[in-house]
Here is the input.
Amino acid sequence: MSALMAVARGIDRVTALVGRGVSWLVLVVVLVSAGNAVIRKVFDISSNAWLELQWYLFGAIFMLAAAWTLQRNEHIRVDIVSNSLSKRTRDWIDFVGHIVILLPFAALMIWLLWPYVLHSFRINEYSPNAGGLIIWPAKAMLLAGFVLLFLQGLSELIKRGAVLFAGYPDETPQGASHAAEASELATLAPDEPQGGTERPTGAKGPLAQGEPRR
Here is the structure.
């Protein structure tokens, strides 16, 4: 299990590196989009290349950051249901869901996209729009996104299995959040009375011999 956990942590590092890098594309998309709007309104000029670049960058953000979103546990959950379940039940749902849904779906998309991207690369496919961009890099982003998602799904499966079957601490953001909530509840709980002698209020020294205890 320790070897599998090392693989999972390696995948997490790659996913986080790609995700943080891609997050900067949000700023680029905003600048390109604003530039396209200003040039079109002010100078009455438009460019298919710049418009397509805007779409390609948005697609790259969505696809390449999906695995990082999964790692950070930021995908949408039905909280009203999830929060009512125990931590172990949620772990089992994640474990089975990764095996039955996520990994098969990502593997199917990789299998379908591989020849699609390879054909586009071989013919050096360009946009049919005048002045448009080359298309195969945008299609390759789809393939890369599902490869990353498959690998991160494998990492999440390993980590969830380590928690369920090997007693490993939960290192995922979901586990850290659960531990923080448990710690907060323990802090807010009223102090339990401790055993032993309770000193009278206002006493300044040790109990004198024969002094009645309260």
